[in-house]
Specification:
Elements lengths: L2 H17 L11 E4 L13 E8 L6 E2 L2 E2 L19 E2 L7 E9 L6 E9 L4 E8 L4 E6 L1 E3 L4 E4 L7 E7 L2 E2 L12 E5 L4 E4 L3 E8 L6 E7 L3 E3 L3 E4 L2 E8 L2 E8 L8 H14 L8 E7 L10 E4 L3 E5 L10 H9 L11 H17 L5 H9 L21 H20 L7 H9 L6 H12 L1 H12 L9 H8 L6 E4 L7 E4 L4 E3 L6 E4 L3 E10 L5 E9 L2 E10 L4 E9 L4 E7 L2 E8 L2 E2 L1 E8 L2 E2 L4 E10 L5 E9 L2 E10 L3 E10 L4 E8 L4 E8 L3 H10 L7 H21 L1
Parallel strand pairs: 6-17, 21-22, 22-24, 28-34, 35-39, 37-43
Antiparallel strand pairs: 1-43, 2-16, 3-4, 5-17, 6-7, 7-12, 8-11, 8-16, 9-12, 10-11, 13-14, 14-15, 15-19, 18-19, 20-21, 23-24, 25-29, 26-27, 26-29, 29-32, 30-31, 30-33, 33-34, 36-38, 38-41, 39-40, 39-42, 42-43
Helix pairs in contact: 1-12, 2-3, 3-4, 4-5, 4-6, 6-9, 6-10, 7-8, 8-9
GO molecular function, one term: metallopeptidase activity
Keywords: Hydrolase, Membrane, Metalloprotease, Protease, Transmembrane, Transmembrane helix
Organism: Natranaeroarchaeum sulfidigenes
């Protein structure tokens, strides 16, 4: 080692030990952090949010299209609910819980006891309840009576209650083949009660957080059973049967003398469940056999709500007026009909009760034929099905059933069994708006073409009466079952996928399914033809009742295929997605906010023109997919600008490369919109000259004096070197 090298090393050692290398951040990371707003603001002046709910609605009880006297009340405000135990959606852990406890009151004939038992969340601000059904309040704890018969919560009682009695007996004058010998549709006796669930109207408000929901359930003090709309109080036995994705609960009171064995009743309604591919299939069907010994019922059977029904205990199955099937068909009618399409409701219940019972071999063709022949009675001659004012007694049951049958027959003939009346029936169930006559005719046209449509037009919009067909004609059209196209959601989780910028993966195992705005849900729906004829299908994806995607095809008998349908969700909220009879709940959220959690640079020291690589780790530690708008800049120049999309609980790295032309300490900033992080890079000229430049500008923690010392020593070493030579 010569003198010059030794002196240079010595000077550097002294100089660096005096000041060290400057680091532009605490902790030695080389990163500057600018604080961003990573918290949530909370308003101190919380606003009150309100909700209303009527459960069940005032028009809940309809017996075969006839409104029940005393049940209509246009003054009821709120959102109608289809089931007494159904939930008004909100935060499942922070909602109002209501148990409606029913009890018999032997001391007050015609009335039952009702106790409303509430559990309220802490953030509930208000709650008021309106009672109907000729309620006689006996006690209220935590409620005070307000205006219009409403009871107002005091705001502090955690478990408020209202106890009252309500009138049970309801009567109805009914015509047609389902009419009974008396007038009662609900009744109370000394030993048992058949009743409609209490009708209540709720309004409530809350502060903070998400929506507060209301969940209603029913309990019975003593023996009994209840569905969504009907309750039976008294000794009974409940029989349960499952078929085709439905659970049938048959309640047989001790006082009933059932004309058919429960297994036979289950067989008949299960056959109807399988045969009817019209959608609107409920998970549970509540069936009650009402005793006929003490009460003269006004109807032979009654269906109410989504899937509650009762049938007299003495009704048999081997008849063209199979009341068990008739009422079951009503549970499959999920549409709303305008007055000019109202005939379809009783017409199809009557027609399919006869047809499906014939297909079960419980009756002869002559009995089926005689049932349809009732539509040719002279009292119906001038009746027009689309004009209810023109109807005679039972026109919709009789002339309507004959018209429905003829339309069905023509559809089968025109399509070689590829379509039937179930096709327009199913389209009606899918309609999000009330169905009128024109819509029905369009559905017939879509299923079978112009000729069946013309037949339907004549038989429904004029007084023309169809002719009853012969056995040979029946065999030609009904000899083999028509195409029965069924639609269902996929069996495996991979059949439901989410696609978009955040992720592309299966999501079918989630319940409910959660997506964020901008994502597309794709479903591999199952389509299957269980009939004996080939037929066309139209697989439709519905969101909140609206058809958002569809695909078509044709299936041979027994064939099964997959139909891909999808929908992009652009608005936040809760949605119901349906494919055929199957439904899934989908929660649509706004994307979460992802953030830059780490920034590094390599190398930390470069020469002008040399590449510097900056790496920013972007993390989404939220349970939802998230995004971040990342900008990488230096000075006034933007190096990289990109939007990062991440799945839940995931991270990625954004990398950018830059070259600096000027020496000195340079800084690169990474900003994600919520905060910024900065790294520093030393740009030097290189060699001894570069080192001297760094020493001179103080970037190594020393000043001009150190530079002069180095220069002097270098000069001296050069002189010594020359002298030595």
């Amino acid at each position: 080692m010569n003198w010059r090298t030794f002196l240079l090393i010595a000077v550097l050692a002294v100089t660096l030990s005096a000041g060290g290398v400057a680091v532009v951040a605490a902790g030695g990371s080389g990163i500057e952090t600018t604080a961003g707003d990573h918290g949530q603001s909370v308003e101190t002046n919380e606003s009150l949010t309100t909700g209303t709910h009527t459960d069940p609605p005032a028009d809940a009880l309809v017996a075969h299209g006839e409104e029940v006297d005393g049940l209509d009340d246009d003054s009821i405000d709120g959102v109608a609910n289809h089931g007494a135990a159904e939930t008004v959606q909100g935060d499942p852990t922070d909602g109002i819980e209501l148990d409606v406890a029913l009890s018999q009151r032997p001391d007050r004939t015609g009335e039952v006891g009702v106790e409303l038992q509430y559990r309220v969340p802490e953030r509930l601000a208000s709650l008021d309840v309106r009672l109907f059904d000729e309620a006689n309040v006996e006690e209220a704890d935590g409620f005070t009576e307000g205006e219009d018969g409403r009871y107002v919560w005091d705001g502090s009682t955690e478990r408020p209650t209202i106890r009252y009695t309500m009138s049970v007996n309801q009567q109805l004058e009914q015509d047609g083949p389902i009419a009974g010998p008396g007038t009662y549709i609900f009744a109370d006796t000394e030993d048992w009660t058949v009743m409609a669930q209490p009708r209540l109207s709720h309004s409530w408000g809350w502060r903070g957080g998400g929506p507060v929901g209301l969940e209603r359930s029913t309990s019975i003090d003593g023996p009994g059973a209840s569905g969504d709309r009907i309750a039976f109080l008294g000794e009974q036995t409940t029989h349960t049967h499952e078929a085709h994705g439905q659970q049938f609960d048959l309640v047989v009171p001790e006082a009933a003398d059932l004309a058919e064995e429960p297994d036979e009743i289950f067989a008949s309604v299960s056959h109807a469940s399988e045969a009817m591919q019209v959608g609107s299939r409920d998970d549970e069907v509540f069936m009650l056999a009402v005793p006929t010994g003490e009460v003269r019922w006004g109807v032979r059977g009654l269906q109410t709500g989504a899937a509650d029904l009762w049938v007299r205990d003495n009704e048999v199955l081997d008849t063209a007026d199979n009341v068990w099937v008739h009422e079951y068909v009503h549970t499959r009618q999920g549409y709303q009909a305008d007055p000019d399409a109202r005939w379809f409701t009783e017409a199809t219940a009557t027609y399919y009760a006869a047809l499906l019972t014939l297909e079960e071999d419980r009756i002869e063709f002559s009995e089926f034929q005689a049932r349809l022949d009732a539509g040719t009675h002279e009292r119906h001659a001038d009746a027009v099905l689309t004009d209810p004012d023109s109807w005679a007694r039972g026109t919709d049951y009789n002339k309507g059933a004959l018209a429905a049958g003829e339309i069905d027959r023509q559809l089968r003939l025109e399509t070689d069994g590829g379509a039937s009346l179930q096709d327009p029936f199913g389209r009606m169930n899918e309609a999000s708006e009330p169905v009128d006559s024109d819509a029905f005719l369009d559905y017939v046209d879509s299923a079978g073409g112009e000729e069946p449509r013309e037949t339907a037009r004549r038989l429904t919009t004029t007084s023309e009466t169809a002719a009853v067909w012969s056995g040979d004609e029946h065999a030609a059209a009904f000899g083999t079952s028509p195409a029965r196209i069924g639609y269902s959601l996929p069996d495996d989780a991979d059949g439901i996928r989410v696609e978009g910028e955040y992720r592309d993966r299966s999501i079918g195992d989630e319940d409910p399914i959660t997506v964020v705005t901008g994502e597309r849900l794709t479903i591999d729906g199952i389509v299957e033809n269980t009939g004996d004829s080939a037929g066309n299908y139209e697989a439709r994806l519905r969101v909140d009742g609206q058809i958002v995607d569809r695909t078509t095809g044709r299936l041979d008998p027994g064939e099964r295929t997959t139909a891909e349908v999808s929908h992009r969700f652009d608005e936040q909220g809760e949605r119901t997605v349906a494919f055929g009879d199957d439904q899934r709940r989908v929660i649509v959220e706004e994307p979460a906010t992802a953030r830059v959690t780490d920034v590094t640079r390599s190398p930390g020291r470069v020469t002008p023109g040399e590449d510097v690589t900056v790496s920013a780790t972007v993390t989404n530690d939220n349970p939802l997919p998230g995004r971040a708008d990342v900008q990488i800049r230096t000075g006034g120049e933007t190096i990289e600008e990109t939007t990062v999309y991440l799945d839940a609980d995931s991270e990625t790295t954004v990398v950018a490369t830059h070259r600096f032309d000027e020496t000195g300490t340079q800084r690169i900033t990474v900003d994600d919109g919520t905060g910024a992080q900065t790294v520093s890079i030393r740009v030097t000229a290189g060699g001894v000259a570069g080192l001297i430049a760094e020493l001179g500008d103080g970037s190594l923690g020393v000043g001009v004096l150190s530079v002069l010392v180095v220069v002097a020593l270098l000069g001296a070493s050069s002189y010594v070197f020359r002298t030595d030579r």
